[in-house]
Amino acid sequence: MINQLFWDFDGTLFNTYPMMVQAFIKALGDLNVDEIEIDEHDIYTTMRQHDVGTAIRKYSAFYSIDETTLRKLNRRYQVEMVTDAKPFPGVTKVFELVKQLHGDNYLLTHRDNQAKTLLKKFDLEKYFTDYVTSNQKLPRKPQPDSINWLADRNHVDRTKAIMIGDRKLDVAAGHNANIAACLFDPDGIIVDSGNPEIKINALVELIPWLSKS
Q1: CA distance 73 to 20
Q2: What residues in the chain have per-residue pLDDT under 70?
Q3: Any long-range contacts for 42-47 (C-beta under 8 Å, 24+ apart)?
Q4: Buried-most residue among 46, 100, 108, 138 (CB within 10 A)?
């Protein structure tokens, strides 16, 4: 039975990408990039298929702007805007099932403690046993270090564990830590999924799968 769930935050638990894209656009605007030239969908696709760092490198090169400045501006605006993010539908139902299965939820995010603040805002923090945020300074996914740290610290049986995320790097992180992986792809934008054990378009699809695992 799988009842040890390792969760990504951005784009998995909380729908933060709309705010992340707008923060990125605002940062580009501050660096004198004409809004007409900005392809909002391409920014989103780059972030989802790769990561924010790839978007920063790609656009700073394309527009010949300073990468470090873009990174700093993007981070500042992102922190401000993400405060309005909400959880994806079905999150609480999955958490409640994990509780019924006598399992645990773990947060594994590249974001800092702002992720925990948002969980608390929606009364979701109580469902989590432990966390890794950027504050721990562990190597980023797809490296397995953060999963290994949580698993070892909490004596997790890896045969009962799964990593849930919205990008291929989340799937790779799970497999690199010798646990199962779930790709949450709400808009079907991930072409190469990295062969997860389960692929879903809505979080509630986890419920029947976990119930019979």
Answers
A1: 12
A2: none
A3: 44/17, 45/189, 47/17, 47/20, 47/21
A4: 108
